[in-house]
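User: Some background: our group keeps a shared notebook of sequences we're curious about, and every so often someone picks one and asks for a predicted structure to add to the entry. Today it's my turn. The entry only has the sequence so far, pasted here. Could you supply the structure so I can complete it?
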Amino acid sequence: MKKGIHPTYEPAQIVCACGDRFQSRSTVGDIRVEICARCHPFFTGTQKIMDTEGRVERFKKKYAKK
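Assistant: Of course. Here's the predicted structure to add to the notebook entry:
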């Protein structure tokens, strides 16, 4: 391999939106993610709806039983 052409592979801290932090290695440094294994619905068994633009609320209002 040629020397000096590869990026450095350094320790990095991954931070989830739920607050969970863990160590890994990366070439880009620290990483921020929205969902990790601790808060993902598949692993937790719970459903969490992230409604940023009110779409879920509008859907429920539109199709609510009268």
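Suggested note for the entry: DSSP finds two helices and three strands in the chain. The helical segments are 41-44, 55-62.
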